[in-house]
Design brief:
Layout: H1 13-46, H2 58-67, H3 75-82, H4 86-98, E1 102-106, E2 114-118, H5 120-140, H6 148-164
Antiparallel strand pairs: 1-2
Length: 176
């Protein structure tokens, strides 16, 4: 037996049942995406309890996350890795620099361009913000870690898949 389809059923019934199964899975994937957006919005809405935590725009958070993963990077590398347009990235970098979270330095390989890196304040702000997120999410889940590793694995696979298949230019129709 394959799901609800037996080998004795006529083949013309299988496509309809396959569509039903696909629709159920599609609904579940849509629910997951919707929940991710809702959780993100809830975290933003709450802000931070520690007055030392600096709030960041979505673009600033994306750039900081990227910079904290590795070595200093040229703005062109940051734009390519994050999917931000160069004009938006310039504005984002200016804002992060004004907040003291990043620094620009001459590119050591050619001396003409610049590279960008997180400052100590940028690293400590990110650690503080992650602590706040962890506390909020852990409390919302009632401290239940039963499926936490599975959730992290699925969300990481989705994030990696989305980054890998990102279109070259952003959509003109952002999600709600």
């Amino acid at each position: 037996m394959l799901g609800n389809v037996t080998k004795t059923q006529p083949p013309q019934h299988r496509p309809r049942q396959a569509r039903t199964h696909r629709s159920a899975n599609e609904e579940r994937w849509a629910d997951l995406a919707d929940l991710a957006l809702i959780i993100s919005r809830e975290l933003q809405y709450r802000g931070y309890t520690d007055e030392r935590a600096l709030s960041l725009t979505q673009s600033e958070g994306i750039v900081m996350r990227y910079l904290l993963q590795g070595d200093p990077a040229a703005p062109s590398q940051i734009a390519a890795a994050t999917g931000l347009q160069r004009t938006n990235l310039s504005t984002t970098l200016r804002g992060l620099e004004q907040k003291g979270l990043i620094q620009r330095q001459a590119n050591p390989s050619d001396g003409r361009g610049v590279t960008v890196s997180a400052t100590e304040r940028g690293r400590s702000n990110y650690a503080l913000v992650r602590h706040e997120w962890a506390t909020t999410v852990r409390e919302a889940a009632g401290h239940d870690t039963t499926h936490l590793d599975a959730a992290l694995a699925v969300l990481t696979a989705i994030k990696d898949g989305l980054a890998r298949t990102r279109p070259p230019t952003p959509s003109g129709h952002p999600p709600a």
